[in-house]
What we know:
By secondary structure, the protein is an alpha/beta fold. It has two domains: 5-16 and 89-212, HAD superfamily/HAD-like (Rossmann fold, 3-Layer(aba) Sandwich); 18-83, DNA polymerase, domain 1, CATH 1.10.150. It contains eight helices and six strands, in the order βααααβαβαβαββα. It has helices at 18-31, 49-59, 66-83, 92-101, 114-124, 147-156, 170-178, 208-212, and strands at residues 5-8, 106-110, 132-135, 163-167, 182-186, 201-203. Strands 3-2-1-4-5-6 form a six-stranded parallel beta sheet, sandwiched between helices. 40% of the residues are buried.
Amino acid sequence: MDIKAVIFDLDGVLIDTEPLHALADIRILNESGIHPPGDYFDRFVGWTNKAMWDQIKKEYPLTVGYEELTERQMTLKLSLLKETDFEPISGIPELLEFLKKMKIPLAIASSSPRQFIEAVTEKLGISGYFTILMSGDEVERSKPEPDIFLKVADFLRMNPSDCLVIEDSESGTIAAKRAGMKCIGYRNENSGQQDLSKADLIVDAIDRADILSFLSSDEPQI
């Protein structure tokens, strides 16, 4: 295989922030007197804010406007991010350095808002590894549609078939395959029971050996 670029999801792949997202969103619903079941937000892993809140409003009598919801949500999430001693997911720092040495362009394609993506990469000190950061808010359709991955490939001037995506969500793996890309599904227990069966490879840990299996055989192994 001749993979020339690697695209990472953010939440649940680079950093274990899915519990943070769920905590903030549950607080917002509780403030409106809504108390969903504990695993309610598992289904929204990989969704954009707008897609998630639109669906929630179909299921619960949530009358708060979208702008107010997202403003409150971002304030909570940035506060939780600042207060918590997050580290990159095990294996990520080594993988990023390895791919950098191999001169493979890297990108982030996340359903989170750009402000949150930038805050996370700055907190982890990894922003310099990525050629582009792309938010789901910057494309017309959210995952599981392929828009965000196709836009990243276009920016990198790569054919989609030359790109490898690392995802932890069902919607993300479907989006990657719809984009015509290869996909590694990372099974993260904090991302809920995600169906990763569409991925080309499913792993329980981030390991550069798995990435090497997708790179062309003439690439130097560092």
